[in-house]
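Support request from a user on the community tier.

User writes: "When I paste my structure tokens into the form, the page sometimes reloads and wipes my input. The last time it worked, I copied everything first. Here is what I submitted, just in case something in the input itself triggers the reload:"
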């Protein structure tokens, strides 16, 4: 009989998805995200907000990163710590270019409103959007 040794850490392993950057990827990302958030006890309302923010980031990749939908890869990493759920959306497309009068333009505003913190950075090539959501059961930092 083989004995197995399990080593535990405070951090749960990341969930990483690599999908074609097409609209068909969005429900897969939402399903995985909802499953992880539900498994760690996040409230339904908070899970829905997280799904909306991540959907906006994914759709930005689908619409803006590549020459055509499905022409590149959409990567999503879901990571948990004791206090945060962090979702990173990455593409290898043409990079982020902010135009002051570009059509649409509500995606990043929605992400900002629904996250505790977020940032957009170059991915060399491409773009990386990192969104952090405080787990409501997590202790708040001291003031």
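"...and here is what came back when it finally went through:"
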């Amino acid at each position: 009989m083989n004995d197995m040794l399990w080593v535990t850490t405070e951090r749960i392993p990341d969930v990483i998805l690599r999908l074609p950057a097409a609209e068909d990827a969005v429900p897969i990302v939402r399903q995985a995200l909802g499953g992880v958030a539900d498994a760690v006890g996040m409230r339904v309302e908070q899970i829905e907000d997280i799904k909306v923010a991540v959907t906006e980031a994914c759709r930005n990749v689908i619409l803006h990163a590549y020459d055509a939908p499905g022409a590149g890869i959409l990567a999503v990493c879901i990571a948990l710590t004791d206090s945060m759920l962090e979702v990173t959306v990455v593409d290898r497309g043409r990079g982020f270019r902010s135009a002051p009068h570009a059509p649409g333009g509500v995606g990043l505003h929605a992400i900002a409103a629904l996250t505790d913190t977020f940032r957009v950075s170059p991915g060399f090539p491409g773009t990386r959007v990192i969104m952090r959501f405080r787990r409501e059961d997590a202790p708040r930092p001291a003031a």
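Agent notes: The reload is a front-end session timeout and is unrelated to the input. The first helix runs from residue 25 to 39. The helical segments are 25-39, 44-65, 107-114. Escalated to web team.
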